[in-house]
Amino acid sequence: MPVENKAQAKPALIRMESVAKYFPMSGEVIKALEDINLTIYEGEFVSVVGRSGSGKSTLMNMITGIDHPTYGEVLIGGVKTRLLSENEMARWRCNNLGIVFQFYQLIPVLSVMDNVLLPMQLHDGFSVDHTDRAEQLLHSVDLWQKKDRFPAQLSGGEQQRAAVARALANDPSILIADEPTGNLSSSEAKSVMDVLKQTVSAGRTVIYVTHDLDIAATAWRTVTLSDGRIIKDEKRLSKYQKRSASKKNGQQIHQIPSQTD
User: Fold this and answer.
1) With contact defined as beta carbons under 8 Å apart, do 34 and 228 qualify?
2) Model pTM?
3) Contact criterion met (CB below 8 Å) for 58 and 32
4) What domain range includes position 108?
5) Mind listing the pLDDT tens digit for each residue in 60-86?
6) pLDDT tier at 102 (50, 70, 90 boundaries)?
7) Is residue 254 part of a domain?
8) Domains identified in the chain, total number
9) Potential cystine with 220: which of 42, 45, 59, 75 (Cβ 3.0-4.6 Å)?
10) Domain containing residue 143: CATH number
11) Integer Cα distance of 102 and 92 in angstroms
């Protein structure tokens, strides 16, 4: 029987209310999402699964504000994102969201350190020194010794861990990951999922899309889509929650730093 997630004792962070997204195409209407009602709470660890074309990417685009619903409402922290202007949306996204892409999207001409520094420099200006914060993040994803390398000099798993560090640079409350392990070997995938677990342990909300059911089962909760609808919303006690409980017995888990640390 699914176990209730303790994160539900916290406030609702993301609400999707009767959300539908339609795309006109060749005289027809493609219903990418239909009647989506979904609430995600602060500190939850959520995976989203479904076949290609099930609506996973469209769902993520609704949460990140990359796109807006045809009908219904999306509220993030009480904010109706569809009402924000492009400039307001850019600022809101910079302050609240970290996004990890399947193909890393690291800037190839910048070192790992500079890739992590860049979001902070764009947010606060280049005159502010964020070196300490970047160093903390690179230590947390076990890339400190490779901070001066360029993306092409890293393995796929290392590039994805660098991408997670960059996504966390401005200390967002929500981390969104689109197929973060899709191009990785099983060992590299495990290292990336370990970083996502650490991110949840630091109090952030993590939502990721995956085709891999084993990877999906790492999360506390799995939302399954089919033909644009939620057909299953399963909560479970994950291995990570069991490990977290063992901290009371003296076991330590390495933490992703926040800016207040």
Assistant:
1) yes
2) 0.82
3) yes
4) 44-56+86-249
5) 999 999 899 999 999 998 889 889 988
6) confident
7) no
8) 1
9) 45
10) 3.40.50.300
11) 23
